[in-house]
Structure formats: C-alpha cells, structure tokens
Design goal:
The chain is α/β, with parallel strands linked by helices. The protein contains eight helices and six strands; from the N terminus they run E-H-H-H-E-H-E-H-E-H-E-H-E-H. The protein has helices at residues 15-18, 25-35, 37-51, 75-82, 122-128, 144-154, 171-185, 191-198, and strands at 6-11, 54-58, 106-107, 133-139, 158-167, 187-189. Strands 3-2-1-4-5-6 form a six-stranded parallel β-sheet, sandwiched between helices. The longest helix has 15 residues, at 37-51.
Length: 211
C-alpha cells in the first residue's frame, strides 16, 4: 500500500455516537464494545499519520432546527432529528477526543446525509491529492460507511473497509453488512492488516467478491 496515494476517511466519530451521554451512543455502544471500534480506529489513525497517508474526517452536522433537510424526514434522518443529534455548536457534534483532528488532517464540511461524497467536496480533495485508495472507518457500518463505500467504488477508487473499526446499532446489522455487502464494493480489511500494509509488511489482499 502506497501511503502517498492512500486516504483514511473517518466517518462520524462524534460524541453523539462514540461517547457516554451522546444522544445515539446507547444504540451503538454494544457493537462498539464487542468490536473495539474506537481503539481500533485510533490505531488506524495513528498508523496513517505515521506513514504519511492522508487523513480525512467526515463529520455530519446540522443547524439547530435541521433546516438543511426536508421538514418531514423519514428513515435514518428522522432518527437523527428525533434525538436532536449532530447539532452544530454542541458537544455531541464534536469529534471525540481520541480521534481529534491534528496536524495535516483534513476536516470535510457539508455532510448532511449518508454518503460522504454527496454534499461535500470530498471527491475534489481526493482527486486533487492524487488519492487512488480509500480506507473507510466509522458509523454506521450499514449506513453512512456503506453509502460512502458504494459511491467510492462507483467513482473508481480502490476501497478498503476496516471491519473492526466500524459500528452499527446491532451485531446482526453489522455482521450482515460486512459479510454480504462490503465484499461486493470493497476489500474488507482488519485494522491489523491495514497497519501492516501501510508499513510494507503485508500486501493488501483482494477480499472482495462478485455474485
């Protein structure tokens, strides 16, 4: 893996998900505990920085009142509104301390939905920096991470998903996405494998699948 053409994209490592007292933490706490989501993601972050890979944070944020989206949300965004999550200027919207941006990290602004590409300049930044490989971690396994994974695949990037640095609202949803969906649109990879590939100790394996 060539660090100069690799970007680690960290999706929604924000207090509302990651931290005790966060509005949505209770929904993901069990999966986080079972998979070690946060400590694993921190290892991936530290390894990416040390290797000189690009680090991109992609938080989601809304003005109070959620005026950026429909007045009648449904599905996952209704859940965000109903729990008053990810409101700009609040503690819950802040990136958790363990994953706090530093140094040359890039923080993407403008994420208002599921796909990190959709309402941001993520694609422009990646292409302008010559990035060809995207490595994804974050929340939710089967929602924003999966949506971003699918878009990245369609856009022609090599996509790796860190299976032990993502979290969902249940182990069933988490495991189902990793088993059935991730291999169709990415190369599912553990953090250990990612760290080893960054250092040149391991060749990134093709863990994708077809039909």
């Amino acid at each position: 893996m060539n660090p100069s053409t690799t970007a680690l994209v960290l999706i929604e490592f924000q207090n509302d998900f990651t931290s005790e007292g966060g509005s949505l933490h209770g929904a993901v706490a069990d999966v986080m505990q079972q998979t070690g989501t946060l400590p694993n993601a921190k290892r991936a972050l530290e390894a990416a920085r040390a290797a000189g890979a690009t680090v991109i944070h992609s938080p989601i944020a809304f003005q109070p009142g959620y005026y950026e989206i429909t007045a009648h949300p449904y599905g996952i965004l209704k859940g965000v509104v109903d729990t008053t999550s990810f409101v700009k200027g609040t503690w819950g919207c802040e990136i958790v301390g363990e994953m706090e941006p530093a140094g040359e990290d890039i923080v993407i602004e403008g994420k208002r939905g599921l796909d990190a590409f959709a309402s941001t300049n993520l694609d422009f930044i990646l292409r302008s920096k010559g990035i060809t490989t995207i490595v994804l971690a974050g929340f939710l396994t089967n929602c924003c991470v999966e949506s971003t994974m699918r878009s990245a695949y369609e856009k022609g990037f090599e996509v790796l998903t860190l299976t032990d640095a993502v979290g969902a609202t249940s182990m069933e949803e988490h495991a189902n996405a990793i088993k059935f969906d991730y291999p169709m649109f990415s190369k599912p990879t553990t953090v250990d494998e990612f760290v080893a590939a960054l250092s040149g100790e391991l060749v990134s394996a093709d863990t994708s699948r077809g039909y």
